[in-house]
């Protein structure tokens, strides 16, 4: 009945079915079965958690891991102690029926009822198709708060049997949280690696490949529960670790078997849990106390809202994508309780907790309120608040390329800044995985296959299967490359279009070219930051080149300064020497001239009017006359042009003859200047020339 299922969640309908079945069994005089905790924790819960962990969307989960951990750890601790403390106050003020309930019993009750239930969250959130961020935040919190719930439950249960609780017990209880959570993760990782390594050798027994996934996952859960570690954390870790390697090793049929069997198994477990919850409500012993039950329900809602508001205010200081008030409302409203709380309450011992029936009644009331009221109203509220829904889009090669490009870019930016963020560590982990782990856990050539090509093969296979299942493709020729399957139209495809198969050598050569040139984008780039810069081998040569260029400019400026003709020295020997062969009037400096000509004489130039002796700075014809001290101080200073060394760079070291002033002076010396115009009757070419 689609009209009913669109309003009422499936979990609510299943509880109603359980209530009806329990009522019928009780009506005919039989005793209805009760959901025992051993059956729940050993057989019904693991399939749901394995399905969630194996198909966990890893990228959004890791990107929001900090937020999820804060909600799961700090939020659950806040709920447990806030609720336990307030319920203790209620018990002290609530009259003779509640006075005997102590602080430890209330804290234990708070730890049971405070944890968000993954089964209930999955059942409701998958139906309303909320956006990926909110779904992973609430669902991730419900998965990871198991460690906190297990620790608090066992801690307060043990403390209840103590005569006196010391500070050492409290410190050990605090440390046990890390042991339970990290120990569960470690157990899961170990079994995940073993499962991946085993799948490497199953190529000849494809039939039992799915069995290893279920077997090792269940062994991880049992091993963790055996040592009172977090079984849920172990299952999630095992599923996340084994999936990429197992899927690379097993056949496509085995992959399909694992997928559908897990979905079916978790769906059956979920159905049984909610039906048994309804049956147990009818069959169980209840003790109703209005004050305790209503206070529990009210304080549960208050604690959840306050915890989400305060933690989100703190988290938003560090998040790039802030959690809006709408998001906060959905997170607070989505804190559903379920069968885990009921099973933990059912496990309580009558000897230490005589009020167990009242606890169970309050727990069932909270479960029914959250599943029925919040579960039924969350869909209309999501539509009313216009919260972003999940968009069903198929991943494309284009998206994968851009995602990898942005990952490399952000990793490079973090390296340059010297900031080791999660992109840096993610890149390190990917490199370690590619260099060592894949070679050990993946068989054959697929261990060396780049991520992009592996994703392309996956998409290609998926598209081919969809085409075959939809009936849009006829008989595919065996020699056609799988790359071109999506382009085949069987109605118009001529037989001549069958593509020849590539030889193994040619195919391997193409793969090698693609691997070396396209995929290893950051293979040869060394990581660096502002503190440890790698020395550039060309830096020293470049610095020497720049220094030579700077020295050449300084030398040219000095020569220009020395060779600038002073305005008041009209009759200096330098000017006389420069005027030889030219008109004296044309080169006579004006007293009010600001821009004085710069005269440079190259002794090696054949166009100079006379040869100049470099050492004595005199003309050869006047070698007998020593220069006066005044001339030595204020006259021309000649420099010997040093021969270029073998290592000098002629491009950056300009010669004296290349400067504009030198060229201008050479033109002046070679041109004798203006001559008087010939009179009429005088031949143009003088005699004797």
Automatic annotation (TrEMBL):
Coiled-coil blocks: 504-531
Which membrane topology term applies here?
Multi-pass membrane protein
Catalytic activity as recorded in UniProt:
Na(+)(in) + H(+)(out) = Na(+)(out) + H(+)(in); Li(+)(in) + Na(+)(out) = Li(+)(out) + Na(+)(in); Li(+)(out) + H(+)(in) = Li(+)(in) + H(+)(out)
Main subcellular location of this protein, as a coarse class = membrane
Write out the GO biological process terms: regulation of intracellular pH; sodium ion import across plasma membrane
Q: Which GO terms describe its cellular component?
A: basolateral plasma membrane
What sequence ranges are listed for the domain Sodium/hydrogen exchanger regulatory region? 479-564
Q: Where is the Cation/H+ exchanger transmembrane domain?
A: 8-382
Q: Which family does it belong to?
A: Belongs to the monovalent cation:proton antiporter 1 (CPA1) transporter (TC 2.A.36) family.
Q: Where are the transmembrane segments?
A: 6-25, 37-56, 68-91, 103-124, 136-156, 168-198, 218-241, 262-284, 290-316, 328-347, 359-382
InterPro entries membership: Cation/H_exchanger_CPA1, Cation/H_exchanger_TM, NaH_exchanger, NHE-1-like, NHE_CaM-bd
Tell me if Ubl conjugation is a UniProt keyword of this record.
yes
Keywords, A to Z, come to: Antiport, Calmodulin-binding, Cell membrane, Coiled coil, Glycoprotein, Ion transport, Lipoprotein, Membrane, Palmitate, Phosphoprotein, Sodium, Sodium transport, Transmembrane, Transmembrane helix, Transport, Ubl conjugation
Per its UniProt record, what PANTHER family does this chain match?
A: SODIUM/HYDROGEN EXCHANGER, SODIUM_HYDROGEN EXCHANGER 1
Query: Where in the cell does this protein reside?
Result: Basolateral cell membrane
Protein name, please?
Sodium/hydrogen exchanger
Highest taxon listed in the record's lineage = Eukaryota
**Positions with biased composition (Polar residues):** 654-664
Q: What residue spans carry the region label Disordered?
A: 585-689
A single GO molecular-function term is: calmodulin binding
- Record bears the keyword Transit peptide: no
């Amino acid at each position: 009945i689609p009209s009913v299922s669109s309003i009422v969640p499936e979990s609510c309908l299943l509880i109603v079915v359980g209530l009806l079945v329990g009522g019928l069994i009780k009506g005919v005089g039989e005793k209805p079965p009760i959901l025992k905790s051993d059956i729940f924790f050993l057989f019904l819960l693991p399939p749901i958690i394995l399905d969630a962990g194996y198909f966990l969307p890893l990228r959004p989960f890791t990107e929001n891991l900090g937020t999820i951990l804060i909600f799961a750890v700090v939020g659950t601790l806040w709920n447990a102690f806030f609720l336990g403390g307030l319920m203790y106050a209620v018990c002290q003020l609530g009259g003779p029926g509640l006075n005997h309930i102590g602080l430890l019993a209330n804290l234990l009750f708070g730890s049971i009822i405070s944890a968000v239930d993954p089964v209930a969250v999955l059942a409701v959130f998958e139906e309303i198709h909320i956006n990926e961020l909110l779904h992973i935040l609430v669902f991730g919190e419900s998965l990871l708060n198991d460690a906190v719930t297990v620790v608090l439950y066992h801690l307060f249960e043990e403390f209840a049997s103590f005569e006196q609780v010391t500070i050492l017990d409290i410190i050990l209880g605090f440390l046990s949280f890390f042991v339970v959570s990290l120990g569960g993760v470690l157990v899961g990782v170990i079994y995940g690696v073993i499962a991946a390594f085993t799948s490497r050798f199953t190529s000849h027994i494809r039939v039992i490949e799915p069995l290893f996934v279920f077997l090792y996952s269940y062994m991880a859960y049992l091993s963790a529960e055996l040592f009172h570690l977090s079984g849920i954390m172990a299952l999630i870790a095992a599923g996340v670790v084994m999936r990429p390697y197992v899927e690379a090793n097993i056949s496509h049929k085995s992959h399909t078997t694992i997928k559908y069997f897990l979905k079916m198994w978790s769906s059956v477990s979920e159905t049984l849990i909610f039906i048994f919850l309804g049956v147990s409500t009818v069959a169980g012993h209840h003790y109703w106390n209005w004050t305790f039950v209503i206070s529990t329900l009210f304080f549960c809602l208050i604690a959840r809202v306050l915890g989400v508001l305060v933690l989100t205010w703190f988290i938003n200081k560090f998040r790039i994508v802030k959690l809006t008030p709408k998001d906060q409302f959905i997170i607070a409203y989505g804190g559903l309780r379920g069968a885990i709380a009921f099973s933990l309450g059912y496990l309580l011992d009558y000897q230490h907790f005589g009020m167990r029936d009242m606890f169970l009644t309050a727990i069932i009331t909270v479960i029914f309120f959250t599943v029925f009221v919040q579960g039924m109203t969350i869909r209309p509220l999501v539509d009313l608040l216009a919260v972003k829904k999940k968009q069903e889009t198929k991943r494309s090669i284009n998206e994968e390329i851009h995602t990898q490009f942005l990952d490399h870019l952000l990793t490079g930016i973090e390296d340059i800044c010297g900031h080791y963020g999660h992109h840096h560590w993610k890149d390190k982990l990917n490199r370690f995985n590619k260099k060592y782990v894949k070679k050990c856990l993946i068989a054959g050539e697929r261990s060396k296959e780049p991520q992009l090509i592996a994703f392309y093969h996956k998409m290609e296979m998926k598209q081919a299967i969809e085409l075959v299942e939809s009936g849009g493709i006829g008989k595919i020729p065996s020699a056609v490359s799988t790359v071109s399957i999506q382009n085949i139209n069987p109605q118009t495809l001529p037989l001549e279009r069958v593509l020849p198969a590539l030889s193994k050598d040619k195919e391997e050569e193409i793969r090698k070219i693609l691997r070396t040139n396209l995929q290893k984008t950051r293979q040869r780039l060394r990581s660096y930051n502002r503190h440890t810069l790698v020395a550039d081998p060309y830096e020293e040569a470049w610095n020497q080149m720049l220094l030579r260029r700077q020295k050449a400019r300084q030398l040219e400026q000095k020569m220009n300064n020395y060779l600038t003709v002073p305005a008041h020295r009209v009759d200096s020997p330098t000017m006389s020497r420069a005027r030889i062969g030219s008109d004296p009037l044309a080169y006579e400096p004006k007293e009010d001239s600001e821009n004085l000509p710069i005269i440079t004489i190259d002794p090696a130039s054949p166009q100079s009017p006379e040869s100049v002796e470099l050492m004595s700075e005199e003309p050869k014809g006047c070698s007998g006359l020593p220069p006066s001290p005044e001339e030595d101080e204020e006259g021309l200073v000649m420099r010997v042009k040093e021969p270029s060394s073998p290592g000098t760079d002629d491009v950056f070291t300009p010669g004296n003859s290349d400067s504009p002033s030198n060229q201008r002076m050479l033109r002046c010396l070679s041109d004798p200047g203006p001559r008087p115009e010939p009179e009429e009757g005088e031949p143009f070419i003088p005699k004797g020339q």
